[in-house]
Amino acid sequence: MAKHKPSLLMISKDATYKSPPRFASIDFQYYLHLPLHFRVVGSCNGIICLVAKQHCYLWNPSTAQSKELPKYPRFNQKATMDYNHDRVRVAFGFDSVSDEYKVFKFTSPEYIYNKTTGAPVLQLYSTGTDSWKVINFPFKCPSGVLCHQDLILGPVINGVLHMGFKRQLVLFDLHNEVFTVIPIPSSKFIKSNVLDFESSVAVIFQSKRKRSRISLWTLADVRGQLFWIKKFNIDLRSMYWIYSYLGGGLLYGENVRDVLYDYINKNFKSFPRLSKKPEAVFKHTETLASIEGFKPSAFLISKFYPQV
């Protein structure tokens, strides 16, 4: 993979779980094996955030260095410390204002709800302080949205984490630590995850009245107000869903199989799947970025393995 060139990394596990999960580049020129039982929650500036049970690591596979984050404080004795718990959600991104990497974590089981507000506990880790802090839950952001199992954690764009749920988009500013809820237009069907489209938030919509009309819309700030603005129409009638935008006009999505679609030249490119359908997909850029506290990885395998 060429340095600083974005690539799509798909996480696949052996069906028997006897082999470790692995990344595969979109052109399948290399594999990146991961330790067993680890889950990837994000990739930013070449650094990957991994979680496993009670451990959270920031890892740069290009430099073979990593850092284990401190344990986050329990809200009460019943609160789970397991990152792999089905009610623990974790996101990873970069705050360009403070020049810090941040991990956002919230947990929603009823037994750890804040007894004062009835809200889930939200915690934020920062590399600047190397510690966790509790974020006050805003009443204007419905707790049912953040706690729902269908909530999709989207990308961190310009320091803002984007989360999608049915007809709403929930934004969390990593620097100012505030939430914003944006409605999805009721006249549209959603055809994609929340996309990072040329550093802008984007979603692909399909008209409910004219099913053949599919277009990409971006979220724009107009005099302090957020609006959906249509950018262009796109021929995606044969695509079930779009997962990611890679840049250069390339969209990664799915119809009968996983495909790349070049919306500029209007052509498709299929590529072979892994041993099973990817359980997660991330855009990753190989860099030499480092974080204070990084040290050589003792157990994280960082070598890229060519396909055989």
TrEMBL record:
Residues 28-231 form the F-box associated beta-propeller type domain. It comes from the Eukaryota. Coiled coil: none annotated. Pfam families: FBA_3 (PF08268). This is F-box associated beta-propeller type 3 domain-containing protein. It comes from Heracleum sosnowskyi.
